[in-house]
Structures are given as C-alpha cells and as structure tokens.
Amino acid sequence: MTKDSDGFLGNSGIRLQLFTLVKYLVYLLLSFNIYLFLQEELSALEHTFIDGFALSQIIQVFSATIDTAAWVLLLLLFELETSVLDDRKIHGPVKWTLHGVRLLCYVAVFYAFTGYCAELTMLYEAAPVSGFDACARIGDSLSLLVDLDEYVPLDAQTCAAVGTDVVQLTGFGIVSEPAVLDAARRLAWVDVINSAAWLLVVIVLEIEVRLQLRGNLSSAVMNVTKWFKLAVYGTLFLAAGYWGVAGDFLDFWDASLWLFAFIFIELNVFEWQAETTQQDAAQA
Question: Is residue 16 scored above 80 in pLDDT?
Fold first, then answer.
C-alpha cells in the first residue's frame, strides 16, 4: 500500500501540498530548537558545573538538548514509517534499521527523562544561609538563580536586590531567594511530567505502528488507544499552558510545536489504518 493523505484532505492537490508544507515547516522549526536548547544549557553551564562534570552527569547538563535531538529523530522515523514509505518496503533490513534506530532514540529520551529527574532533585538539595549579605559575598564567585536554568553572576549590580533570606544549592556556588527557587522547582516538575507523558505517547504509537504493519490495527484497538492518548495529550496541553503562563517562552514554543507535530503523526496513522481497512473491504 502506498500511503497518502487524501482521506481527510479530499482530492485537492493544493490542500495536500499546503498540509505537507506546514507539516515539514513544523519539523524544521523543531530541529532548530535543538540549537536553542543547546545555547540555553551552555549558558547555564557557566554557573553550574564550572569545574567540569563527569560523563555520567552529561544528561543532567544537556538533558533538553539530548531530549529534543532524540525526539526529532524519532519524529522523522515515525513520519517515514506512517506516511512516506510504501508498506511493501518496510521489511527486512529497512524494517530492522527503522526499529533499531528508533530503539536507540527511546533509550536517549528515557535517559533525558532521568536527567530532568536529576535536575529536579538538585533543586531540592538546598540549605538556608543564615545572615546572608549578598554584597559582602561578591568576591566568592557565586551565581544567583533567577529562573529554571537561568543564572546571573552575584556582582555589584545584582547583589542589592537580594535579601537576607537565601538558600544555597548543595554542592554548587548557586544561591537563590526561596520564592525564586520554588518557582524553579515547579517548572522542573513540569519538565518531568511532560517528559513522562511523551514517553507514554510514543509507547502507544509504537504499539499502533507494529500492529498496523501486521494488519492487526483494528478500529476497536484505535478506539481504546484514542481515549488513553486524549488523557495524555491533555496533560501535555496543560504543561504547555503552564509554561506560557509562567513566561518560559522557549519551553512553551517547543511544547506547542511538538503537539502540532504529533497531530500530524496521529493523522498519518489514522489515514494509514483507514486505507488498509478500505483495501481489505474491497478485496473481501
């Protein structure tokens, strides 16, 4: 079977071309986000692991970059399998290559999930500093937490705004006012929940794709997975909304693009399954 998207777009070539253009534009923007997250994490690295970090800590340092890169590759693999490649070509070496690379991506996104968890843990390992005088500590090479993954040097310009009620992250030269730290913790929780929800999405998609390749993806199965995915996608929409309200534009922008991207993948699976059902009915 050759896959196409005429089912819900009708037979209009213009509409199909527009759909394809928008879809690949979203994919391109998501690829650019890898660079944006890398820049953000490199900036944060100047204030966190200033003395270097162990290989085992690389996921904590670059969790968003690794996560986004692995997800972009996963997205393109799902696009190939659900929309681009003819079913007759998805066998033998092609099939095992697709599934093998996808398995490596799953390892990477789960690894990134542990990185988000490690960052959350780091934010909870903090101790209050009694009698803290920010301006008197300028020479101590401390950094001030202003938001999740955002820091500024504690210097003559920033110290005046820091009160005496301060906590310091254990093992790091990073201080924060309690309210700022609480806000960062909430954002870190959203990172963990969002990452876990996306893991559930791809598990269900993987099941659907494998069933479809075997000719076992029935309408009954689609109805069951539909309600599960609605709940998970609802969680993802809430996470994106929280980032938008909290003023974290990059995470909000990235989350919105990913939701658009996986709507396209879901439409691919829907069309793929519908075409297979129609062909089976015609041959019966």
Answer: no
Q: Decide: 201 and 229 in contact? Cβ < 8 Å.
A: yes
| pLDDT band (50, 70, 90) for residue 188 | very high
Q: Within a domain: residue 81?
A: yes
Strand partners for 110:
none
Kindly report, residue by residue over 45-59, the tens digit of the pLDDT.
878 777 677 777 787
Beta bridge partners, 129, equal 166
As for how many domains the chain has, the answer is: 1
**pLDDT at site 223:** 84
Supply the range of the domain harboring residue 189: 6-283
- Alpha-carbon distance of 276 to 262, in angstroms, equals 21
Q: Say if 68 falls within a structural domain.
A: yes
Interval 255-278: pLDDT, tens: 999 998 888 888 877 777 766 666
Q: Is 222 a member of any domain? A: yes
Return d(Cα 128, Cα 207) in angstroms, integer: 48
The full DSSP string for the chain is ----SHHHHTT-HHHHHHHHHHHHHHHHHHHHHHHHHHHHHHHHHTTSSTT---GGGHHHHSHHHHHHHHHHHHHHHHHIIIIIS-GGGSSHHHHHHHHHHHHHHHHHHHHHHHHHHHHHHHHH-EEEETT--GGGGGGG--EEEEETTEEEE-STTTGGG--S-EEEETTSSEEE-HHHHHHHHHHHHHHHHHHHHHHHHHHHHHHHHHHHHTT---HHHHHHHHHHHHHHHHHHHHHHHHHHHHT-HHHHHHHHHHHHHHHHHHHHHHHHHHHHHHHHHHH-
- Averaged pLDDT of the chain: 85
DSSP for 74-92, written as a single string = HHHHHHIIIIIS-GGGSSH
Q: Is residue 1 part of a domain?
A: no
